[in-house]
Amino acid sequence: LEILDRARREPDALVRSADRLTLDEVQRAPDLLLAVKRAVDEDRRPGRFLLTGSANFLLLESISESLAGRAVYLTLWPLTRREQLGLGTTGSWDTFFDRPASEWVEHLNDSDIPRESWRDLAARGGYPLPATAFFDDPEARELWLDGYIQTYLERDLRQLANVTSLIDFRRLMRAACLRLGNLLNQSELGRDVGMPQSTVHGHLSLLEASYQLVRLPPYSVNRTKRLVKTPKVFWADTALAMRLAGEHEPRGAHLENLILTDLLAWRGARIDGPELLFWRTRTGEEVDLVIEWKGRLLPIEIKTSTRPSVRDVKGLRTFLDEYPDTSLPGLLIHDGDEVSWLAKDVLALPWWKAV
Fold first, then answer.
1. What are phi and psi of 260, to 5 degrees?
2. Which of 23, 154, 164, 303 is 20 to 30 A (C-alpha) from 282?
3. Could you give the 3-state DSSP secondary structure of residue 22?
4. Which has the closest alpha carbon to 355: 62, 81, 60?
C-alpha cells in the first residue's frame, strides 16, 4: 500500500528510485506510465523497466499512455507442460522445421520427457497455482478456479468494458466453452444464449482481447480469406474452460486445446512467429492444426486413441496431396507410446512427446 500511494503521489520519484525496476499491477497507477515514458526518453537503455499486470492495461479506459515506440509487449500464456516439469520450454515443434524428417524419430525418442495422462493435464490447466501448488488437490483447484472466474467477472472485466449483465456474460462463456474445437457461429451462439448477434460479437471480442477465448483461423493460400472465414473456438486454459462449462471429464477437444495452448506459447517466444491454423474442405475433410512457418506447412491431426491406424490419416493425406510442394510430413498425435511412421509421410507421435 505504501508503494501504491507513492506511485500515485510521486510517480517520477518511484520510477527513478532504482536502476532497474519491476512494476506489477501497473494499471492501478496510470500516471506511472507517463513517468516511465519520461525516464525512457532520457535514458534509452533497454530492459530498465518490466511492467506486468493481470489485465491488458492497453485496453483500460483509465490509461491514455501506450508507451508506443518505447516498449515491447509479450503475452504470457498459461504454463506449458514442460514448464510445469521445470524444463522452462515448450514442446518439440522446432524439431519438425529445423531437422530433416529422417531424424525426427531418433530425436523425439532421445527426449527424456515423462509420460502422463492428458486428462489429468487438461483438468489441471496451466495457471501457476492450480498447476503446481494444487497439483494433487482437485478441490482446492476448483475453489481457486471459481475465485478466478468471480474476480475476472466482477473486477477485471468491469475495468475493460461496460458489461451490463454479468449473468448473461457468464452464460455466453459457458456456451463457448461447451463448443471447444467447433466452428464459431455467432448467430447460432446468440440464439442458444438469448442474445443479439451484435452483443455476442462484442462479448467474444472482449474475451479474446482479455486472453480468455482463442480463435483459430482456417488455412487458405489467400491470406485475406483467413480473416473472413469462420474460425474455430478454443480457450486459453483447459481447466478454466472445463470449470466454466461444468464438465468433469475432458473430451477430445480438450486434448486439441492442450496442443494449441502449447503452440501459442511456442509462437509467442518467437519474433518471426508462425501462424497457427486449421484446415477444412467444403466436403468436410479436416486437419485439426496447421503450422505455417519458414515457408513450410506442418499438418497435425489429433486423436485420443492409443493405437493409431491408417484410417486416422484420411484428412492428412488429402492435405498432403493438396499442398505437396510446401508440406512437411504430417503428424498424427495420439495417446499411445510409440513414435513410428504410419506411412512415408505421416508420423504417429504420442502427445506427451510433442508437448
1. -65, -40
2. 303
3. strand
4. 81
The C-alpha atoms of residue 92 and residue 319 are separated, in whole angstroms, by 22
Helix, strand, coil content of the chain in percent (nearest 5): 45, 15, 40
Q: Hey, which bits of the chain come out as E strands? A: 21-23, 49-51, 213-216, 232-235, 275-280, 286-293, 296-302, 330-334, 340-343, 346-350
Cα gap 316→331, rounded to integer Å: 8
DSSP letters spanning 289-318: EEEEETTEEEEEEE---SS--GGGGHHHHH
C-alpha to C-alpha distance for 37 and 45, rounded to whole angstroms: 13
d(CA 291, CA 91): 13
C-alpha cell at 42: 532520457
Cα 68 from Cα 265, distance rounded (Å)? 24
Distance, first Cα to last Cα, the chain: 41
Sequence-distant (6+) residues with CB within 8 A of 327 are: 296, 297, 298, 299, 319, 320
Place of cell 488437490: 137
DSSP 100: -
CA atoms within 13 A of residue 160's CA, in its CB half-sphere: 22
Q: What is the DSSP letter of 72?
A: -
Angle at 37 between CA 31 and CA 42, to 5 degrees: 135
